């Protein structure tokens, strides 16, 4: 599913950045994808996916 239409960033890409590149904040996501830098409508949904993915990773470790 595409989360950021302006920059064609999918939920899969966001999860990949967290799980494979170790990115854990919106600043890092923006740096890698430019997500949110145009209309900004995607930011809230992207944050939800980011938080959910980081939390699931934490659960796996503990
Ligand atoms: S949908 Fe992401 S900046 Fe517009």
From TrEMBL:
InterPro entries: BFD-associated_ferredoxin (IPR052371), BFD-like_2Fe2S-bd_dom (IPR007419), BFD-like_2Fe2S-bd_dom_sf (IPR041854). Keywords: 2Fe-2S, Electron transport, Iron, Iron-sulfur, Metal-binding, Transport. Its cofactor is [2Fe-2S] cluster. It comes from the Bacteria. Residues 2-52 form the BFD-like [2Fe-2S]-binding domain. The keyword Transport applies. Belongs to the Bfd family. This is Bacterioferritin-associated ferredoxin.
